[in-house]
């Protein structure tokens, strides 16, 4: 989940505020300096697609300098004193309780009578009676029930920092759909990466009898360590594949990914949408490699099955890194997403889709919500998505019926018309070529994401 509003959601790549050029990620390099969020990533400023100026390291997780102001030029000499100070700073910027301590605290907490179970809303923390005093000036919730402890995503405030970590929680309907799909496909283990609500749904079901599915949550939101043991949650940064809990946490993940014939694993991830697709892809490849290594003899060249939940306009970026993936028409809905367009049915139209390396025909979408099976495409498509005879595929990306443009030789959005001066289709009231801000998708100047040439590559 992540930020969606057009205009307010410049990713790293478009580098708003850094002049008209872009900011390009060069990646995670060996020996990179560290901030409290693990190894920093290497970036460079670009102008018209060319590298310009000195390369520098910045925090992988926080795009807002207010959250982490780590910065270092690539060729900068850092003195021993500064290195020592930085290490000290990194240590001091870890959470006040360790995961282990939080697990112990939880054990004590559940032994308390309901009348003594408090949750501090300001500190976002379960309180033990001895701590009440310290938090006496804070707002708190009392009589915390077992049900509340089992749905931490409802108890915790969704993080709302638009740039760094906006948490968008699945609507119940979408979460239930995902879980049913996972079960119907025969999976018994789910690696939930940045998907706390899916994890929580699985966890609470797992405590019922006859429900044999397990989940491991990997997320950067450490507040979840108050509710889950080290076998259920790892504090993890998906932009640099960093396990805050070190080798022990990595081992937990590795063990979880070990599958035998009955315990098939799938990874489900719903990352923040603000760009950095290559950083995500590189971490996901490392998780896939971890899965592959777990079984001697390998998986006959298979990939770890995966659902990557992301907006449809990132399709070409994702396929660039994962050519075996395809995009499903299912619209993933969220509870706290203010930024949907309203569709003609009155229902919110979400731009968020499921990308998967599973065979599309196996992903059965709910007929009662209007999805139907296209026998030619061999996949389920949304009701408005018409099979185009010329493209020989169901071409709509956003659920509306698209139309074929003979000049562009492809299907385009219903609201577009062919513009002879731009030599492509665009909105009727567009301004021909130009816009100085970089494109949200590819970071290049000259067009907006809606007309990004990289989107039409597929
Ligand atoms: N729809 C999901 C939540 C998606 S919101 C659900 O309902 O379960 C994005 C999630 O990614 C949040 O849980 C957030 O804490 C997590 N996240 C954000 N940045 C991250 C990072 N750098 N590494 C790991 N997780 C991150
Ligand atoms: Zn408090
Ligand atoms: Zn079709
Ligand atoms: Zn067509
Ligand atoms: Zn034009």
Helix and strand arrangement:
Layout: E1 22-27, E2 34-35, E3 38-39, E4 41-47, E5 50-51, E6 56-58, E7 71-73, H1 80-92, H2 99-111, E8 118-120, E9 125-127, E10 140-141, H3 146-150, H4 152-155, E11 160-161, E12 165-166, H5 172-184, E13 189-193, H6 196-206, E14 214-219, E15 233-237, E16 242-243, H7 246-257, E17 265-269, H8 277-294, E18 306-311, H9 315-321, E19 326-327, E20 341-342, E21 348-349, E22 352-356, E23 372-374, E24 379-381, E25 387-388, E26 393-394, E27 403-405, E28 410-412, E29 416-419, E30 424-427
Parallel strand pairs: 13-14, 13-17, 14-15, 17-18
Antiparallel strand pairs: 1-4, 2-3, 4-5, 4-6, 6-7, 8-9, 8-10, 11-12, 15-16, 18-22, 19-22, 20-21, 23-24, 25-26, 27-28, 29-30
Helix pairs in contact: 5-6
This protein binds S-adenosyl-L-homocysteine and zinc ion (4 copies).
One zinc ion binds at residues 419, 421-422, 426, 430, 432.
């Amino acid at each position: 989940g992540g930020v969606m509003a057009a205009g307010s959601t410049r990713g790293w790549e478009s580098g708003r505020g850094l002049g008209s050029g872009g900011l390009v990620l060069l990646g995670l390099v060996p020996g990179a300096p560290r901030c409290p969020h693990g190894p920093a990533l290497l970036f460079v400023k670009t102008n018209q697609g060319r590298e310009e100026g000195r390369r520098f390291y910045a925090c992988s997780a926080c795009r807002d300098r207010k959250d982490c102001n780590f910065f270092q030029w690539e060729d900068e000499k850092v003195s021993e004193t500064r290195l020592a100070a930085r290490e000290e700073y990194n240590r001091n910027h870890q959470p006040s309780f360790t995961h282990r301590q939080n697990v112990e605290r939880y054990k004590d907490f559940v032994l308390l009578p309901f009348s003594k179970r408090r949750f501090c809303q300001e500190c976002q923390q379960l309180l033990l009676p001895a701590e009440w005093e310290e938090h006496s000036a804070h707002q708190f919730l009392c009589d915390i029930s077992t049900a509340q402890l089992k749905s931490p995503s409802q108890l915790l405030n969704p993080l709302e920092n638009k740039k760094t970590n906006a948490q968008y929680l699945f609507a119940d309907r979408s979460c239930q759909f995902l879980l049913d799909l996972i079960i119907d496909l025969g999976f018994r283990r789910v690696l939930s990466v940045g998907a706390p609500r899916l994890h929580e749904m699985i966890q609470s079901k797992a405590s019922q009898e006859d429900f044999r599915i397990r989940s491991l949550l990997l997320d950067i939101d450490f507040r979840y360590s108050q509710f889950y043991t080290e076998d259920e949650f790892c504090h993890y940064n998906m932009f640099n594949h960093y396990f805050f809990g070190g080798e022990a946490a990595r081992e937990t993940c590795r063990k979880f990914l070990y599958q035998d014939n009955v315990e098939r694993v799938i990874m489900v991830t719903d990352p923040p949408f603000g760009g950095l697709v290559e950083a995500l892809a590189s971490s996901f490849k490392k998780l896939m490699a971890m899965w592959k290594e777990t079984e001697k003899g390998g998986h006959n060249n298979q990939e770890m099955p995966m659902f990557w939940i992301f907006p449809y306009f990132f399709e070409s970026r994702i396929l660039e890194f994962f050519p075996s993936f395809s995009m499903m028409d299912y619209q993933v809905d969220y509870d706290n997403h203010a930024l949907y367009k309203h569709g003609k049915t009155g229902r919110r139209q979400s731009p968020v889709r499921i990308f998967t390396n599973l065979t599309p025909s196996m992903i059965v979408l709910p007929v009662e919500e209007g999805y139907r099976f296209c026998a030619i495409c061999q996949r389920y498509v949304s009701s408005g998505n018409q099979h185009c005879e010329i493209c020989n595929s169901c071409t709509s990306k956003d659920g509306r019926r698209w139309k074929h443009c003979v000049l562009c030789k492809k299907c385009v959005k219903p609201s577009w018309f062919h513009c002879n001066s731009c030599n492509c289709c665009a909105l009727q009231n567009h301004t021909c070529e130009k816009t100085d801000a970089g494109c949200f998708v590819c970071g290049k100047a000259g067009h907006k994401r809606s007309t990004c040439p990289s989107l039409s590559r597929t």
